[in-house]
Structures are given as structure tokens and as C-alpha cells.
Specification:
The chain has 155 residues and is mainly alpha-helical. 71% of the residues lie in helices and 0% in strands. It has one domain. Helix 2 crosses helix 3, helix 3 packs across helix 6 and helix 4 runs antiparallel to helix 6. The chain is elongated, with a radius of gyration of 17 Å. 37% of the residues are buried.
Amino acid sequence: MNQPAAPRMADWRAAIIAGFIAGLAFLLINMALASSLLANPKLPFQLAGSLVLGPSVLPPTALSNHVLLVGLGAHFSLAVAFTCLIAFCLHRWGIWTGIIGGGLFGLALYSINYYFVADFVPGFAALRGWLMASSHVVFGACAGGCYEALERDHR
């Protein structure tokens, strides 16, 4: 008698690597946008740091090495966590589903961040708009696509 195949498991190694890649892409895009549109390339670090340290780190003059390190840690921790969630949900269906599903996940993440989290972190509400929405879509698509490209089939 044939035994049924074991369900495919997500490749967590690939998810963690993809999380760092997508997190770096997201960080670079947001630094470029913040630099060109707001003249503050430090803003992505301050926003991520404000999740841990509170809104006092949001003024442009408040970026110290401590805030920078906390912001980087928070940013990449969230990027890896969200990529692991994408991997868990989408690991069965291939690269196109990873890219498209990841992009949709990024859009949902934008909605949560800028319409729910913004109630608790005031700096987020001021950045609502298509630029941040599109950078979240790019993050999700990059996370899903990189995960699917790096994934090894585990049963």
C-alpha cells in the first residue's frame, strides 16, 4: 500500500534569508524616498526605532547610534517575521504566487501599519500614501519571490 506523501513544510532557512534581502530592499527604497521627498534619509530608522523606543525618537535631530541600532534591529526582525509568515502561507504554489501573493501581503501590511499602528505611533499617519503603499508591495513581492527562489523542497 502506498503511504500518502507528507505535507510540504516551509523552508525556514530560505524564509530568513529572503527576509533579510526583502528588508534591505525595503530599507533602501524608503531611505531613497525619504531623502528625495522629505530630506531625511534617517526616517526609516526612526520609524522602526519608534516602535520600540516610543515617539520621542521621531524628530530629525533625535537619531543617535542607539536609535539607529534599535531601528535596524526592529526593522530586520519585522522583515524576517513577516517573510516567515509569507513563506508559511504561500510556500506550496511557486514563484509567481510568491511574488503576487507577497505583494498583496505587503499591501495588507501597509494598511495595518498606516491605519491601525498609526493610532499608537503618530509618525506613521503622516506618511500615508501611494509611495509607502508601493514600497510595502515591493517588500512583499521581493520577500515572496526571494523565498520561492531560495526554497528547497522539504517533505
